[in-house]
């Protein structure tokens, strides 16, 4: 069952694309990530042009995140106040990120920068999360138990302009909260991600948000950040393939519901370990693509908007 994508200018198998959406949606509901860090590389591996993969990936993230967030909202595991502060920063970051995306595309360096950012961020975040989660599981197996993060304090808690977030049981400065949102917004625009693979560990280790609240709150923030990014990408770069996005969204909505249910059956350290392994696997795959010699080292392409 093949279908031609008008913007990507390529024929794809409908079942394969929807299967990607289901898989990413499942991970979204399970780990609290939008899934953009996975869907964008998968689309690139499937020969979708990187510019289209990034912009359309951000669009797909909305559906998967909304479905997963809805499941968490019903269980009361979303801190709406904290999520709102994060998305304020995310909206600001998205504007700057889209401008940077447009500049990189005009310079012809977008593909390289996107791949390098994925390798650096996925490798770094995945490695740190894996080490910490394995240490937590080792402590649990050793009888000492998992350390509760919410009771710890670091330099972030000494900053001014503090705000109380009752659902997360936090009293923390809004400076790092909004700053984290800005960074996620920039990454959403450039990498086509919701930023959950950075948002989740940052909320856990930096802000000390309880793990059971992190996932739902992350998904809530991702919905709006990805929405702003999608609108800006469509208006500025015309790189969103609606047909491709629709197929991904269909699968993503279904997968997210099953993922949210599966996530309830795992402990926090187990969830972090699985997410870390997934993040590392995607980063290693992209890193391999950067160093391996391509089958066709030379290619000819026309500037956007021109035809042969």
From TrEMBL:
InterPro entries listed in its UniProt record: TM_pro_TauE-like, TSUP/Inactive_protease-like
Matching Pfam families: TauE (PF01925)
Protein name per UniProt: Probable membrane transporter protein
Keyword Transmembrane: yes
Gene Ontology terms: cellular component: plasma membrane
Main location: membrane
Family statement drawn from the similarity comment of this UniProt entry: Belongs to the 4-toluene sulfonate uptake permease (TSUP) (TC 2.A.102) family.
């Amino acid at each position: 069952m093949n279908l031609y994508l008008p913007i990507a200018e390529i024929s794809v198998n409908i079942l394969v694309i929807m299967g990607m959406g289901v898989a990413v949606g499942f991970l979204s509901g399970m780990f609290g990530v939008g899934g953009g860090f996975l869907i964008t590389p998968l689309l690139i591996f499937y020969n979708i042009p990187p510019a289209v993969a990034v912009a359309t990936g951000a669009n797909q993230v909305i559906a998967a995140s909304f479905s997963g967030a809805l499941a968490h909202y019903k269980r009361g595991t979303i801190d709406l106040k904290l999520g709102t502060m994060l998305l304020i920063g995310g909206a600001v970051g998205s504007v700057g990120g889209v401008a940077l995306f447009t500049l990189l595309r005009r310079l012809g360096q977008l593909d390289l920068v996107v791949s390098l950012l994925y390798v650096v961020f996925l490798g770094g975040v995945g490695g740190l999360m894996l080490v910490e989660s394995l240490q937590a599981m080792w402590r649990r197996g050793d009888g000492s138990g998992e350390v509760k993060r919410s009771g710890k304090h670091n330099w972030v808690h000494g900053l001014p302009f503090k705000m109380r977030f009752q659902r997360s049981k936090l009293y923390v400065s809004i400076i790092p909260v909004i700053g984290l949102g800005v960074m996620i917004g920039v990454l959403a625009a450039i990498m086509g991600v919701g930023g959950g693979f950075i948002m989740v560990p940052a909320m856990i280790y930096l802000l000390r948000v309880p793990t059971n609240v992190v996932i739902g709150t992350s998904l809530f923030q991702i919905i709006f950040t990805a929405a702003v990014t999608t609108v800006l990408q469509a208006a500025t770069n015309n790189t969103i393939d609606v047909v491709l996005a629709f197929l991904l969204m269909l699968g993503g909505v279904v997968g997210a519901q099953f993922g949210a249910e599966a996530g309830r059956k795992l402990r926090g350290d187990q969830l972090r370990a699985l997410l870390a392994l997934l993040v590392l696997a995607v980063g290693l795959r992209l890193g391999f693509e950067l160093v391996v010699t391509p089958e066709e080292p030379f290619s000819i392409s026309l500037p956007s908007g021109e035809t042969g």
